[in-house]
What we know:
- With 447 residues, the chain is α+β, with helices and mostly antiparallel strands.
- It contains 22 helices and ten strands.
- The chain folds into two domains: 1-183, Beta Polymerase, domain 2 (2-Layer Sandwich), CATH 3.30.460.10; 229-415, cca-adding enzyme, domain 2 (Orthogonal Bundle).
- It has helices at 2-9, 27-30, 39-50, 60-66, 82-88, 141-147, 170-175, 185-191, 194-206, 212-221, 230-241, 246-255, 264-271, 273-291, 298-319, 324-340, 347-359, 370-375, 380-392, 398-409, 412-418, 424-431; strands spanning 23-25, 55-58, 75-78, 92-95, 101-106, 109-115, 155-158, 163-166, 178-179, 209-210.
- Bound molecules: adenosine-5'-triphosphate (ATP) and magnesium ion.
Amino acid sequence: MIRKLISRVFGGKKTAATHNEPAVIPVSGHGITRDRLSSGSRRTCETLQQHGHKAFVVGGAVRDLLIGADPKDFDIATDATPEQVRACFRRSRIIGRRFQIVHVMMGAETLEVTTFRGTLDEKTKTDEHGRVLHDNVFGSQAEDAARRDFTANALYYDPATEAVLDYHHGVADLKQKTLRMIGEPRARYREDPVRMLRAVRLAAKLGLQIDPEARKPIREMATLLENVPPARLFDEMLKLLTSGHSVKCLTQLRDEGLHHGLLPLLDVILEQPMGEKFVMAALASTDERVRRGKGTSPSFLFATLLWHEVLALWDKLKGEGMLKTPALYQAMDHILDVQAEKLAITRRITGDIKEIWSLQPRFEQRAGKRPYALLEQPRFRAAYDFLVLRAEAGEINKELAEWWTRFQNIDGEQRSEMLLPEQAGEKKKRRRKKKPAASSVDRSSGE
Ligand code: ATP
Ligand code: MG
């Protein structure tokens, strides 16, 4: 309402060009004093300003402070070029391919310092769907504001004056709990389809409504996500899953039609009744950890999300006559390969996921020396937590998880009393020579 009135008074529909002058909102109007910033972000802005540059805290941090949330990190925007920023700080380095930024190290903090970006024009390189490929042109602060995605993300806080510079009515939108796209939503999604995922994530995380104009096109433009590089999708999915609001984010993704066929992972999560209880339990417990400020493990989370896929394929392969362990390894590889087509899960995380999975059959062996060897595994703790989750979801007998809880917590004497009698078959199996087919089966083989 107020926005409509303002835009009528100041002359019609807003475009980037009419946003050259920001509203300057003093501290009395927003209440964010500079002591709410991290000391690193304050010092970085101060140093840049002392060298004659403009410098502001920008984006998510200002947005979060305005709605009373704790910012995850503090990003800085400046009119200094990356080289000029580099020259102001001894401990800093230029990084980035798509757009160069500078990492400034201040004590334990690393600040991301970004030079104002310029307007896209006809020379900007895009793919055949209009996705921007290179984005390395610097510009004015007003241009930088117009290049940001949502009005609430285009707010600049000056620690020296404690004023917020607002180019796109972001403060008013935040007050009305609205996530509004800057510019024409369809064009902005075409430039960067990941903005659709960001809209859903930020709305869910911050309790905002996506403005209908930005919400409407999502369903029909969802397929554009197929052309986004898998590494970027992985980054965004990770942010979504570790936002502390993953259940809400995923439900909203489904409501917006953003999951089907786009990311196999989401189909797995949202369309498999078999694994749903397990997946939802894992997501809810991750959300809980994030909200309590505890760390989360992406590999544990991905291991959970994909476990029922692995189980189904593992069963199928065993049914076709494959041995237990090689079948498990083949199932793991295949399920991860399917994901990798759309989602570049990093190698380190894939390695961890496989370890958590491959240790699962070994929990079944509770005789002889094997349980002791399992305790010594570096990934025992994660694998054990995973086992507990499986028991809680009813996939395996609770008694097995309880046995392991007790086994690891009692002392040596009692431990040996807990061991089950070794069965004749098991000993024979251990003496069996390795089959050629098992060559891909490594150290954690349970055969
Ligand atoms: P979070 O709380 O997850 O950090 P954020 O909005 O700060 O949310 P970042 O990825 O840290 O997200 O981005 C910082 C800022 O950069 C954003 O607030 C926004 O202004 C701008 N930005 C990020 N991604 C995009 C994008 N895809 N298109 C336009 N602007 C973007
Ligand atoms: Mg941020």
